[in-house]
Amino acid sequence: MNVAGQNLADDNASDTEEQSAFKKILLTLVSILPWAIVATLLWAGIFVKPKAVIEEVIPDSINVRDNIFGVAHVGGDVYLATGNYGKMLITQDGGKTWVNQDATVDVHLQDVSSWDEDRAVAVGNAGVTLMTEDGGETWVSVESPKSDVANKLLKVHTYPGGEAYAVGEMGMIIRSMDYGKTWQQLREENDIFMNDVVKVDANTIWVSAEYGQIFKSIDNGETWEEIFTDSPNSFAAIAAKSPQEIVIVGLAGVVVGTSDGGETWTYVSPEQSGMTEHMMDVQWSDAIDRWVAIGNKGKYMTFTKELTDFEPMNISTTDYTSHSEMEIVGDKALAVGATVGSLDLKTKVWTLYHE
Q1: Could you tell me what percent of the chain has a pLDDT over 90?
Q2: CATH code for the domain defined by 68-354
């Protein structure tokens, strides 16, 4: 064998030895790999403590099944609202976001009204009356007059000095003079719904009721006059621009008003106003110098203090839900009901906050 052949043979032998050594190392690694995996898992099981990551789901303060019946302006951007099954809410930003408060009851709360940022009162089904002295941090149930027949309280309004009036089923008219702590009944019960109340001066109180009836007291609730109007429909809400100028709205779009303190009343039929849906609330707006009424199926209307120039409208091209109450502050009306939103009275733009 020549030298070149001998060198080639030596190289081949060297390659064979290297391959054999590599195979041995590879086999060794493969054989110990399962044990390494087991050891790693055992170490992790002993020394590594897993941490569970739980994402908290916080439900919305107002969900799609809620109905918000009443709303009250406290001041600035602060409002209170009440609704079904003891729903009590507060907003600090004009209605965009809401926080639940503990009303301590589970009946429907129909309305709420406040004296200031600390003191407020709410009423509802079963004759429930609630009061707070700390801005709603705590709500306390208080005793109020009850009927043996039915006791739903529908509306409550507050006045300076701790005075408040609430009305409801069985002709109930009750008053508090101490910021909602105690209540007295002002009129004997009878089978009629008292749907809203307004006090226009030191001694004069007006109540709107079923069947086109109005009740008036000129001696601060000591005696009451029953007034029958031309309206064939029940009244839902009453409001006063002044002691002389009072407007009432109700079912099927009915409007009744007076400009002489109730000496005479003007009846406006749905055919005259163009509104046939139930109107559930009415307020005067200085910003547009018109009355504003809101109600069922996304409808609202405005009209002049002379009860002329009626303009029935939809609050939105997409929101056809019903609304039970509103608070007008400046040129905005915060409305509640099946949805919650703000209506710009000048631009007529509806901003939906919750549905």
Answers
A1: 82
A2: 2.130.10.10
Q: Give 283-305 pLDDT, tens digit per residue.
A: 999 999 999 999 999 999 999 99
Whether residue 100 contacts residue 88, with contact meaning beta carbons closer than 8 Å, is answered with yes
CB contact at 8 A, 329 and 314: no
d(CA 256, CA 212): 9
Judge whether 148 and 168 are in contact, CB under 8 Å: no
Contact 259, 302 (CB under 8 A): no
Predicted pLDDT at 63: 87
In sequence order, what are the beta bridge partners of 237?
A: 249
pLDDT at 207: 98
The tens digit of pLDDT for each residue in 40-59 reads: 666 556 665 666 555 555 67
Q: Which residue has the tokens 């056809």?
A: 320
pLDDT value for 3:
45
Element (H, E) at 32: helix 3-47
Phi, psi torsion values for 26, nearest 5 degrees? -65, -45
pTM of the model: 0.84
- With a CB cutoff of 8 Å and minimum separation 6, the contacts of 75 are 116, 117
Paired strand residues for 301: 293, 312
